[in-house]
Specification:
globular; about 120 residues; about 45% helix; 4 helices; alpha+beta
Length: about 120
């Protein structure tokens, strides 16, 4: 850390600039293609409903334990390759539904549609 830098929990100006300008997946093209064919294809097959949000989308799935596990694993791996997303997972206690919200900085919404195909 340089003498002039501050250690703070808030996003710095540099962090905000990076967030706004670097909307890209860290996976290579073959890795992203494989992810689209496996993980993303599985989520698309199980998708019940999609709602557009101001800065992203909300996706409705069944609330089974298996689905919750799959969504949790998706979030964990997606955080590694696309760290510009914010995730919310809302799970009903009666296991009827699970809602996954994916939101982010400007451009994230388009990335969800264009690159992830969700």
């Amino acid at each position: 850390m340089s003498a002039g830098s501050k250690n703070t929990s808030l996003c710095s100006e540099e962090c905000q600039a990076k967030s706004n300008s670097e909307i890209s997946c860290k996976l290579t093209t073959p890795e992203l293609q494989k992810r689209k064919e496996t993980v993303l294809a599985s989520l698309k097959r199980q998708l019940i409903e999609k709602k557009e949000l101001k800065d992203g989308y909300a996706f409705k799935f069944n609330g089974s334990d298996e689905m919750v596990d799959e969504l949790t694993e998706f979030i964990k791996t997606e955080r590694v390759c696309c760290d510009f997303f914010t995730f919310n997972l809302s799970i009903s206690g009666d296991k009827s539904t699970a809602w996954l919200e994916m939101k982010g900085v400007e451009g994230a919404k388009e990335f969800i549609s264009n690159e992830l195909g969700l």
